[in-house]
């Protein structure tokens, strides 16, 4: 029996669809409410023909409303909404006692000022910022915080791939925080399910380019978490790129070694050796997006270049998976005292 | 009438095929000899069905031999051979008075010691290293050197995209040479026409990964040219990546600004404002591989991040074009006193 | 000197862009006017960054107007407009003595009734239907008609690949006209430069499907030309498919042999053996889109299956090239007494 | 607890890998033996980095041997071996009382003569042909036969997509068996995990072409099953195509209607309306490979063209899934009295 009742708000995009996919297959969770203004009244399987014939896929989209979600009996609601909009639903759902896992940026930052600087409008619910937990369960103590959280801010796609390998090195002072340079490459689904011609097949295929330089919004949460780890303000150089793949993020980060090169592998091992979802590939082993797509895995390899004195961190994840939907389900598992890997073991 | 007689040695791979394509269409050059052990006796158009029915495509592959090439009357020979092998043909062809444009790495380095360090065997013809000209025509004074050269070492694919934007900044002391970090993303044709299953469609599609870290062979020529420009030894951090595209290289380089940010654009403009093939996109404009594939263009954009004090250089080229074959044809044009753009204006 | 002045009306889509590319490179044609409401006032090279730095690419888009086109001195105008709209411009341009090559469907059909049946609205200029020449130059006598035409209706992408191999067999009565079954596979550019999410990268990548069944609009012109060849009304079964490629159409047609199998190759050879752009691959040789993209070639192979008594015709072309833009330029060459291959020899 | 012990023989290719993926995730099956000469002694997760960290992925490849498989306690063995080789293992395994699901062609045909005609060598074990069950569980009575079978011949990728929609129409006499024309489009994984340069990324990307005409090996099993359904010998025209996708087969079949058009949908509904894995899309609804990849679903749409009197059957499946590995697991479920959908519900 599927004991846990869940809702997905704003389920018509790629992140929403991936959440639906994971929850339809989840052995312990049941979808009781999915919302979409655009698809109100239509069953999931009509909007997403891939789900056709799967148990639960006859559920119909409803208009988004906290009342409807509460009436359906949802214990947990996932918000796959644009930033700014998500906060409004979070407030209403929390008031009804429904725990919220927000996949937007609205509650990822501790500071309303930084939010306004990066997102261009005042924070819509600053009073909730203290309560929200940044849901990167692999960080020290974070799983415990998520377990008891009412409001989890699930991390962005780039941040997960960048923060995770860097944190243990910063915590141990193995690299110079001022020297961090990151390049990420994202598949096109990162742009969302969009009619923007820039992301049409003919424009995105056979096209490789940087974008969003030099101050991508995700920098705010990246630097927040790195600063916590380093115990000092950290700013990094970050360049995202769009590459012709459906999903996946490959991230290459380098930084100047300030400690012992052998300590790099040891620090990663200490932090993630027992992790369910971080897979350490070892020295000289690049991470490949094709090994992690449609999973909750984050693969991490590393190397050291004695010529330049720089450490290389090579990570890969699915931008819609560990970078969004499956990471949010991982938080749900923690919040509901399920096994962390429940419903997340598909490969 | 096509006045200039040319030969291509080792014409069965992707670089060779691109050379053939350019020379078949070139208004002033004629292919008189193409060699391939594998395809000896077969006409070009059988091996490359794309060329079928095009004037000149009935020419048959011959076994590689300097005598045959000389007998065919070639004035210029392109070598699209593996390193180590190319040198042997270069010696034989130069002895017969045939000018050589070598697309391998054999003559790109000034130092036989550095060659041995990076390529793992002694240099096959160290006596020719002084004579060879590193054929990046956009560099200051390089066009003149190419015009009179007997032996041109045509640059590698990554180096062209990395060296070209950096040189003017290093020459003017605008960036810290010790701070350079480069990420490049290459299409799969960079691996050559190969039966290696790693580059099969199903392995390379939907796969994004770093490789060849931390000491890629191309670093040797990159650092050689950057050191000349900087007037001091330069070592850079360079991470190449493989992305699911046919061709194209996108390169993102960052370095700490040591001068005035406004000087960046001015330095690029001064160096390349009149260039036929370097297209300056301006500040905040990323370069996209899709705009340069099958051309000899190198697109360069740039940006400055005041948060980290780093300059961003964003460049794109075709790895088989400006990164290999069309750049070699550009050298041929210079050597034979043709217009630099002859046969290279297709878009 | 580029002697012939040309205009492109509606130059902002993929067919328009391909026309611009061909005309910018054409040795005898000059672009004097390009129109686009959307991009009025912007230079070509800004809208199409690939053209940047190419001679002629500074030309600015104007609003579409026959007066403007005439004032610019255009002798020939290409219409890359939606059906229904094209006719209106054709009328105005012809009145000003400007010859018109229309890439829409407006003048492809001899019958206004059939037009209305397939396109859903009355024909906008039935009085011009007699004057228009269906511009498939490889058909018997068609080149002559094109040479003197004031109005050429350039064929659709699917029709060229289907009609061309069938016509000689129908003319010679080698196949049963009632037995023709065609499957075509088109790259995504066939859908145009569109913001429709169906053609976004993430929807079109890794997706293969039929569409537009069972009565695709192109059937009307296909059956018109086949009926002429057969000397009787012909109706065919035609199923187009969308495949994850940028451009290219691969067509497989089969029909019951009614004559001698050996006569198939002979009939194709007789019809197209001397053609500049039809390349006969021979028996048992499938045509591959990758050999014809960005060219004006149509590759045709064939086979015979004695088990079922069916002939197989295997053809490939570029939907934007021989299926649209380069075929239109081929008509222009004929109309202006240039060599048929001028500006169309790039590979 | 995973109660059923399974073995996979020849597990290093794409079909083998998909079998491993499904069995590693299967709630009731345990992998106890996997064989590969090439990878002997290496753990699954090293050969397939995607499986890293998943329970069971530490299992090591062994050399293929019926003794080893028996010693490991396998009840069922899957053979993912080339035809000709598979039979040899089937004999040895059956002798040890291990039930066999063979994914090769060795036991798909009822006739050793037809086998020799299509596969070019005498059948290696003609005495087993009577015993083998052609494992297309959706066919009438086939599930029952599979349940008690010792040896299941799991169908080829093309046949499943072609046979399934045709059988109900042939059984009811709704179409003319002599009029069947099929076009299929397969992703590149259909060629196997191969170093053949024809299937390298740069050769297969942006390439669409027919191949294997006019007498593909799969015709033998297709026509066998169609003949059974029609009650008369059936021969069809079948043209497979290679398209640039990782996996998936899209099939379009047409045939002349001999009955009532309305009966088409009814016949499909009667045959497959209750099927777990055949999803009927209805009239005018094309099947799209992107909705079935990595699943055991076969999607079927259909249409009728009154102009030509032909019925269109539009089907899609994953060539590695319903066309190979997941179909084989479906047979295993039947043989072991599990729910048919066990381990096959992932989307």
From TrEMBL, chains A, B, C, D:
Top-level EC class as recorded in UniProt: oxidoreductase
Keyword hit for Glycoprotein: no
Record's keyword annotation contains Heme: no
Catalytic-site annotation from UniProt: 157
Localization annotation: Cytoplasm
Reactions that this protein is recorded to catalyse: N-acetyl-L-glutamate 5-semialdehyde + phosphate + NADP(+) = N-acetyl-L-glutamyl 5-phosphate + NADPH + H(+)
Keywords: Amino-acid biosynthesis, Arginine biosynthesis, Cytoplasm, NADP, Oxidoreductase
UniProt cross-references to Pfam families, sorted A to Z: Semialdhyde_dh (PF01118), Semialdhyde_dhC_1 (PF22698)
PROSITE patterns per record: ARGC (PS01224)
Organism domain of life: Bacteria
Pathway assigned to this chain's UniProt record: Amino-acid biosynthesis; L-arginine biosynthesis; N(2)-acetyl-L-ornithine from L-glutamate: step 3/4
Domain annotation Semialdehyde dehydrogenase NAD-binding: ranges: 5-149
Enzyme Commission no: 1.2.1.38
Family, as annotated: Belongs to the NAGSA dehydrogenase family. Type 1 subfamily.
Purpose of the protein: Catalyzes the NADPH-dependent reduction of N-acetyl-5-glutamyl phosphate to yield N-acetyl-L-glutamate 5-semialdehyde.
Protein name: N-acetyl-gamma-glutamyl-phosphate reductase
Organism of derivation: Rubritalea halochordaticola
């Amino acid at each position: 029996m599927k004991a846990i009742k869940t809702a997905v708000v704003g389920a018509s995009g790629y992140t929403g669809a991936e959440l639906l996919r994971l929850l339809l297959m989840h052995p312990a969770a049941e979808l009781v409410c999915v919302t979409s203004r655009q698809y109100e009244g239509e069953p999931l399987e009509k909007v997403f023909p891939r789900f056709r014939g799967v148990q639960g896929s006859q559920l119909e989209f409803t208009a988004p409303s906290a009342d409807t979600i509460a009436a359906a009996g949802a214990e947990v609601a996932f918000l796959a909404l644009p930033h700014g909009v998500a906060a409004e639903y979070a407030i209403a759902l929390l008031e009804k006692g429904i725990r919220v896992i927000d996949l937007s940026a609205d509650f990822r930052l501790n500071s309303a000022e930084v939010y306004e600087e990066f997102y261009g409008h005042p924070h819509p619910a600053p009073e909730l910022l203290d309560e929200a937990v940044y849901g990167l369960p692999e960080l020290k103590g974070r799983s415990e915080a998520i377990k008891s959280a009412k409001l989890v801010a699930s991390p962005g796609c780039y941040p997960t791939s960048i923060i995770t390998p860097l944190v243990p090195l910063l915590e141990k002072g193995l690299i110079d925080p001022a020297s961090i340079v990151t390049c990420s490459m994202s598949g096109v689904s990162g742009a969302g399910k969009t009619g923007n011609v820039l992301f049409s097949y003919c424009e995105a295929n056979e096209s490789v380019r940087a974008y969003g330089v030099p101050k991508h919004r995700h920098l705010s949460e990246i630097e927040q978490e790195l600063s916590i780890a380093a115990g000092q303000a950290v700013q990094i150089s970050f360049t995202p790129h769009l590459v012709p793949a459906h999903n996946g993020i490959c991230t290459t980060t380098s930084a100047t070694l300030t400690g012992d090169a052998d300590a790099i592998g040891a620090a990663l091992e200490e932090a993630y050796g027992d992790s369910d979802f971080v897979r350490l590939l070892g020295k000289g082993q690049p991470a490949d997006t094709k090994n992690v797509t449609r999973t909750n895995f984050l693969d991490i390899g590393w190397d050291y270049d004695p010529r330049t004195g720089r450490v290389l961190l090579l990570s890969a994840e699915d931008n819609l998976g560990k970078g969004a939907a499956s990471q949010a389900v991982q938080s749900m598992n923690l919040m509901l005292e399920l096994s962390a890997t429940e419903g997340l073991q598909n490969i």
